[in-house]
Amino acid sequence: MRAVRDALRPLHDAAVKRELDAIPVGRLQDVTEGRLRLGSVEKSGLRTLGSVLEAGPYRLRRIPGVGQRTADQLLAAARRLSDAVHETVAVHIDVDRPEPRTTALVTALHVLVEAGPEARRAVDAAAGLVERLEPLLVDARPATGRVRMLLAGREKKARAVAAVAGIRALVEEAERAGVPELLAQASVDLLRVPASDVAAWVDFELRSAEYYSLLAEISGRAPDAAAAEGFLPDEIAERVRTQQLDDTHRRVSLRGYQAFGARFALAQRKVILGDEMGLGKTIQAIAVLAHLAAEGQSHFMVVCPASVLVNWTREIEARSALRVMVLHGPDRHDAFADWKGRGGVGVTTFDALRGFPVPGGGEVGLLVVDEAHSVKNPQAKRSQAVALWAEHCGRALFMTGTPMENRVAEFRNLVRMLDGDVADALGERDALAGSVAFRKAVAPVYLRRNQEDVLTELPSLQQTDEWEELSASDEEAYREAVRAGNFMAMRRAAYARPEKSAKLDRLREIVREAGENGQKTVVFSYFKDVLGVVREALGDTDGVSLFGPLTGGVAAGRRQQIVDDFAGVAGPAVLLAQIQAAGVGLNMQAASVVVLCEPQIKPTIEHQAVARAHRMGQVRPVRVYRLLATGGVDERLVKMLEAKTRLFDAYARRSAVAESTPDAVDISDTELARRIVEEEQERLGMTGEQGAAAPVV
């Protein structure tokens, strides 16, 4: 750890200096409540906080109008801001621009990452031994020599004899627990060096989340505690903090907020983990499974979409010592019987779950439901099956980054599967009162954290709306779709005539530019035929490998293979993906450019898609382009998306909002589509026109 701290110090100091040099001197007014007159200071050439600190008291006093008292006040205010920067600034490791200082840091971290959690257990075991041995060694000192023992008084002799016996017992206990072997292995692991600097950098790119996790822990620059704990009420947060977390069967370290999430699930028993995507909900679930297995639980069930079955089995196998079985496909009932007899983690789909017998009380240690917003409709058979299993399991962990899309009633349906009393307490009045009342009401079962609050090292996310003027050909196709009253045709009209498509021309430019920079791109569309058009258009792009399209019709295992192939290919590449199929469960952090071919009806669909690339493990800045056509359906959808996003933020994302939310009214997709079609027909003068059709949605 000392090597990491030594390598980190100059990088952190440089990051602090850059930050201070970017803060205008006017910010000192915030600290002094406007009491300082800074005009003469700025005229003297000291325009940033860094320059004020570097100038020091002597140069400040030489500025006309700045005396000793003003200079002291300036420096005191500047130091207060500087201290805050020191505490909050994070070191970002630029994988594309390695230099000696960052290489030294990555190499030092590599040793600890390779050593893994076993090294931490060795350190903890050693610390525990030292704590227990120290008082015994003090008492046993007379027994280190015959003369000392003879000269010691009766009481000291008795304590020495007892201490020697205590030391022997402690050594025997440590040997039975395998502590000598643990310490020996840790010594070997911590002395091992990477084969080369290149090997350390390659490993960092593959496992950057683990590197940054250790870096945050060692540097002590953890995220804001309240944010990391989801702004839970004090009494619940305190109960969670005291919950133990056994890592015996776990093979990966947790970040502080992840450990808190796992403890929350254990302490509260039946919960919804609503962390924003990219924060490692799967890892937190595995930590809960591993803890319960260490306590003696033998059977667990994970329910998830078919598209992420493979990902779940991989994650459990790689990050824990737990046995995992896929309960899916034609042999699922045989697999279920095997799982019931031998135990382990069964991984199945929502539809397959309906065919399995409901467990008896206490039989299943934990039910994990991934993408739990898929069961928000209580009338759906899959929802009823999940609710029945949750009722018969003592513990349940629902996971979703989008627990509330349009209305609080849907979120209440999820809560009801876990705790009827909390669901009953969550009335419309709480919802309309704003998120403070909402979060307080659901706190016993709901925890949510956001990327910006807890992933300080995450590379930047730049989102750009690319507004394109429709070509004459595009406009003609769009008017035909409006005249037919066909909402879906209106949404993809910009690609209906590829040879003169304005959006397609811009898409080619984005992919070409990304390719020239060696970047990988993922292109999302709601429509399979649009992806087909895009694939044909990009087929002649030099030096760019094409993958996909990844659609709902592609088998779950094949989807993961396509993503793996995309990540593994050297050089620039493009992955084409249907947003509903690839926006859930698949990790695409190999991509640093994301293109959305058209705006989506629900903001959460777009958020999910972007989060597949901009997530923990991403080491490069992510650039998101949303291709939009001026006028027409795209503009209307963008405005409605903004309204829905504000509603989502108020209830599910922020910890508090000052304003009420009068727009908290659901508009179903069908109503929204019909309204847009009618408004567009009116705008284009087609109302009552011969040949104009009623809306088709």
UniProtKB/TrEMBL annotation:
Top-level taxonomic group: Bacteria
UniProt xrefs under CDD domains: DEXHc_Snf, SF2_C_SNF
Stretches assigned to the Helicase ATP-binding domain: 262-421
Residue ranges of every copy of the Helicase C-terminal domain listed in the record: 506-673
Keyword Kinase: no
Molecular function per GO: ATP binding; helicase activity; hydrolase activity
Signal peptide: none
Tagged with keyword Hydrolase: yes
Native species: Streptomyces antibioticus
Protein name: DEAD/DEAH box helicase
Upper taxonomic lineage: Bacteria, Bacillati, Actinomycetota, Actinomycetes, Kitasatosporales
SUPFAM superfamilies: P-loop containing nucleoside triphosphate hydrolases
Keyword annotations from UniProtKB, A to Z: ATP-binding, Helicase, Hydrolase, Nucleotide-binding
Pfam family, one: Helicase_C
PROSITE patterns named in the record: HELICASE_ATP_BIND_1 (PS51192), HELICASE_CTER (PS51194)
